[in-house]
Amino acid sequence: MFKDFLEHIFPRLILQENIRITYTFCLGGLAFTAFMLLVISGLLLLFYYQPCPEKAFESILFLESSVPGGRFVRSLHRLASHAFLVLIFLHTLRVVLTGAYRKPRELNWVIGFVILCSAVFEAYTGYLLPMDQLAFWGTHTGMELISTAPFGEMIRNFLVPDKVGLPLSLLRFYTLHIALIPLAIAFLSFLHFYRIRHDKGVLPYL
User: Fold this and answer.
1) Pick the CATH number of 2-10+26-198 from 1.10.4100.10, 1.20.810.10, 3.30.70.3270, 3.40.50.10610
2) CB 97: neighbour CB atoms within 10 A?
3) What is the dihedral of CA 32, 36, 38, 41, to 10 degrees?
4) Which end of the chain is more exposed for a tag (fewer CB within 10 A), N or C?
């Protein structure tokens, strides 16, 4: 799978007609690039962020005011997250409009849709971490909406076992945001690229 991923990123041959700039040009690749920016900037933020209710907002203020380049790194992380969501939504829309979900690519369509859902959930879990008023009330509203859905109360109790912004809920959002969901997105992305190469009839030059 990893070998096919590398071969997809660095193909041995590209047809000239396939590198023309069009409205669908490399949306999936651009989304993955935004994801890599998120990983790199997120790793840098880990050196200063403190995942506890009393220190979270203070650590953000310290990062932006006292760390050289701290405001830039945080802004890059935020903008990359917006770009990632927009690009992956556009990529999904392109797949729907062009019928690229049809046989033999049904499995890859499911994988791509799961990546989209994971990206939205990743953005949601990261929203609480600054622990300012906007983050607190935005997450609180989201939890109330989730609780009205089927199995929503069970999901809410898992994500927020105490209350929004208290130690255990913040720790769960933090763990999901920095480890579990990014690893899932990375694995699914490798699988997604592998399936693209596996269905070589779609891209005969591979």
Assistant:
1) 1.20.810.10
2) 9
3) -160
4) N
Among residues 69, 41, 55, the alpha carbon closest in space to that of 182 is found at: 41
pLDDT in tens, the chain (206 residues): 677 667 766 777 766 666 666 666 688 889 999 999 999 999 999 999 999 999 999 999 999 999 999 999 999 999 999 999 999 999 999 888 888 888 888 899 999 999 999 999 999 999 999 999 999 999 999 999 999 998 999 999 999 998 899 999 999 999 999 999 999 999 999 899 888 877 764 444 33
Contact 152, 160 (CB under 8 A): no
CA 191, CA 2: separation in Å to the nearest integer? 9
The two tokens of residue 124 are 């949601």
CB-facing half-sphere around the CA of 120: CA atoms within 13 A: 7
**In contact, 92 and 187? CB cutoff 8 Å:** no
Q: Tokens for 44? A: 């840098």
Specify whether the CB–CB gap between 40 and 74 falls below 8 A.
no
Our CA angle for 146, 85, 149, nearest 5°, is 10
